[in-house]
Amino acid sequence: MLMAHPTVLRNLLEQYDTMRILHAEDGSPEVRRRMEDLAYTLCVSTGTRDIDAALVAARHQLPGARPQDDSLLSV
């Protein structure tokens, strides 16, 4: 499987987090569309099908992520 460059993943994560905050404050259609675009891109970049799995996978692919740390996966 192809893997996105860590810099790309970090940028996508930062943008998604920013849009999530803006959506909570504003909720405008433009912010929602941008979040959907970022969610799709994160899913494609990580080989996942939903945004929650994509966020976990992206964070685990970043340098410094501990491969044995599954704390993000527990509910």
Describe the protein in words.
The chain has one domain. With 75 residues, the protein is mainly α. It has three helices and no strands. Helices cover 65% and strands 0% of the residues. It starts with 5 loop residues before the first helix and ends in a 14-residue tail after the last helix.
The dominant shape is: elongated
| Proportion of beta-strand residues | under 5%
* Count of helical stretches: 3
Distance between the termini: 27 Å
List the helices and strands and how they pair.
Elements: H1 6-25, H2 29-46, H3 51-61
What are the defining features of this structure?
75 residues, mainly alpha, elongated
In short:
The chain has 75 residues and is mainly alpha-helical. It has one domain (6-61).
